[in-house]
Amino acid sequence: MDLTILLFLVQDGITNGAIYALLxxxxxxxxxxxxxIFIPQGEFVAYGALTYAMLQGGHVPGTAYLLPIFAFVALxxxxxxxxxxxxxxFLLRQGxxxxxxxLGLLFAAxxxxxxxxxxxxxxxxxxxxxxxxxxxxxxxxxLADRSVLVLLIAAVGTHLALTGLGLVFFGAEGQRADALxxxxxxxxxxxxxxxxxxxYVATLLLIAGLYWFFExxxxxxxLRATAVNRLGARLVGIRTKGTGKIALALAAGIGAxxxxxxxxxxxxxxxxGFVIGLKGFVAAIIGGLASYPLAAAAALAVxxxxxxxxxxxxxxxxxxxxxxxxxxxxxxxxxxxxxxEED
Amino acid sequence: MSxxxxxxSNLSVSYGxxxxxxxxxxxxxxxxxxxxxxxxxxxxxxxxxxxMGILPAVxxxxxxxxxxxxxxxxxxxAVGLSLVSERRELFSSMSVEDNLRLGAVRFxxxxxxxxxxxxxxxxxxxxxxxxxxxxxxxxxxxQMLAMGRALMAGPKxxxxxxxxxxxxxxxVADIFTIIEDLRxxxxxxxxxxxxxxxxxxxxxRAYVMELGEITMSGxxxxxxxxxxxxxxxLGFH
Lengths: 343, 237
Ligand SMILES: Nc1ncnc2c1ncn2[C@@H]1O[C@H](COP(=O)(O)OP(=O)(O)O)[C@@H](O)[C@H]1O
Ligand SMILES: [Mg+2]
Fold this sequence. Notes:
Chain A is built from 13 helices and 2 strands, in the order H-H-H-H-H-H-E-E-H-H-H-H-H-H-H. Chain A is mainly alpha-helical. Chain A has one domain (3-172, 188-335). Chain A has a two-stranded antiparallel sheet. In chain A, helix 1 (3-34) runs antiparallel to helix 12 and helix 11 runs parallel beside helix 13 (317-335). Chain A starts with a helix and ends in an 8-residue tail after the last helix. Chain B has a 6-stranded mixed sheet with strand order 6-7-8-3-9-10, sandwiched between helices. Chain B has a 4-stranded antiparallel sheet with strand order 2-1-4-5, with helices on one face. Chain B starts with 5 loop residues before the first strand and ends with a helix.
């Protein structure tokens, strides 16, 4: 193995690791705020990649139709739950949230498909992140006070449902998008593509943005507060149902961005998301579903190991990555003092 | 007298089959300190939690003349009712400042800063500790933070569940001084206490709760001199 190959593998590892870090963050975020171990995170990646690839190819993506359907089901849930106290203001809010916005995005997708890379990118993130809150409303909000195990079962169910819907709405064909840019620079012997740079920049921007959101804005603090003490959050007037929706919107948005970044690098199928999400999951678990920096470091490690494993033993690369989880989990379970959930 | 700010009538609360509060009626008027005293397990916390909307209850609940039985906790905060729960329920891994900021979560940054300045005037100790993590503070400081956080929402009625629980006598005296200051500033107080003597001293009116029911009520001063109260709740002090 010469230096060039080594550098290639490292670059590949860091690029993938950055994306796993984003997914790991999304998982830590969702778990902290809602206690959901969010298995379907990978589906957001697949949906993001497929949505972006189709928009770029000038087609209206399936998610643009799926969104109004999800929103309509969520609307029925809300109308039923609030049936005894429906007001004009409530109907107006619901109408905008569940009808106007989804149909507006569908309309935008029909008008703007194939127009420009920027339009495809923005629409993809908008459509996929908008799915998050409705998904929360339908699948998780009714169970919000139940145990972690019940929520996990709901998450597995949601993963299966989203994979199935992915097949229906996108078909079995794989898609690959054009690169964001064909710009490229040489770092010594190593060519660094614009796509790689986009991954690094987007990851750093998202991390900085999340940091700013959680540390500096009152909505971000409210999300953290809900994670720390749900009852305390309700007592100060934070709408904890709202925080679950925000968490899923963020997770879906992060998934969409990851998908957009991945789409030009590999062919994505409706069910590709799961394995990608699982690697973010490995990172999040190593971070104890609690630490963002630890999750980020673990994600880079997963990316690098995977990259080298695919060079030396490509048939076994997934096996190697997931096998790594076992010693980590063992160490964690012996080393961790049991910190009980604050209630 | 005018209409009550907070009115509970014939309120019952159950945990499964066990009825912990039975047919309780209670009113708090503007400018009042009202106390509910009773032994451990009498149902005082259950009553406050139901009034806050944390526990489902049957019976009539009104706030400022409007029915509030169907309001969620968050909406009760918005209309002007706040609860400092027995367990404080702080955001322990967040700073004092962030805890207070979240007390005014519905308000703009500027409004929140103005309110925080007011809370710091009332609790100078919190100002000194503004960057400290809530979970690392002493019991008295935590109680002050919990009260300060509740005040950030600008409540018309503040419900306090055993604010003196587990605190040293000197700090208990401070807390009661602050409660009386709050009343002067126009916040009505519903105070639940096992420390019956201090509560009756501070309050205008009082209710006595036993096994989930109100067994006596009246002017706090009268109850403080009632021989039966003295025997049951004040005797061993
Ligand atoms: N979460 C709960 N589940 C079941 N029973 C409870 C619960 N909380 C309190 N109780 C019971 O309800 C009664 C009243 O409790 P509580 O309201 O805490 O009394 P107090 O605040 O006056 O000490 C007690 O008998 C207590 O055991
Ligand atoms: Mg109690």
